[in-house]
Amino acid sequence: MRSLRPIAVVLIVSVLLAACGGGGDTYGPVDEVPDDAAAVVTASNLEFDPTEVEIETGDRVAWVVDDGVIPHNVRFPDDDIGSENLREGEVWARRFTRAGTYEFVCTLHPRMRGTVTVR
User: Fold this and answer.
1) Domain count, the chain
2) Helix (H, G, I), strand (E, B) or coil at 9
3) Phi-psi map region of 33: left, alpha, beta (phi>0 left; psi -120 to 50 alpha)
4) pLDDT of 19
5) Distance CA 74, CA 103 (A)
6) Quick one: which of 13, 48, 61, 63 has the fewest CB in 10 Å?
7) Do β-strands 47-49 and 37-44 pair in parallel, antiparallel, or remain unpaired?
8) What is the pTM of this model?
C-alpha cells in the first residue's frame, strides 16, 4: 500500500498557495521600479507627476520619491491601502486587479493627489 503522506503534502501546499494569491491587488515596498511597471509616478517638489495614470487591469504602478529630505507616502483612502512614509529613492508599487478609478494622496501633504484609472 502506498503512503498517503506525499499526497497530503501536495494538497496542503496547494491550499496554502491558493490562499496566498490571485484574488486581490498586490502592493508594498520594492527595491527598485519593477520592470513590469506600466506607469511610474514621481513624488517631487511636493507634487505627484503625473497626477493621472491610465492602465489595464492587472498592470502595476510604481511610486518613487525624488524630493530630497522630504518624506512622502501613497495612500488610497477608498480601500485603506498604502505605503508607509517613503524617503528619497524609495519605491512602493501596487498591482491593480480590478477595473475602476482609484484616488491616491500623500497624507503628509494632502494637496498631493492623483488618480489611477484601471480599464
Assistant:
1) 1
2) helix
3) beta
4) 33
5) 10
6) 13
7) antiparallel
8) 0.79
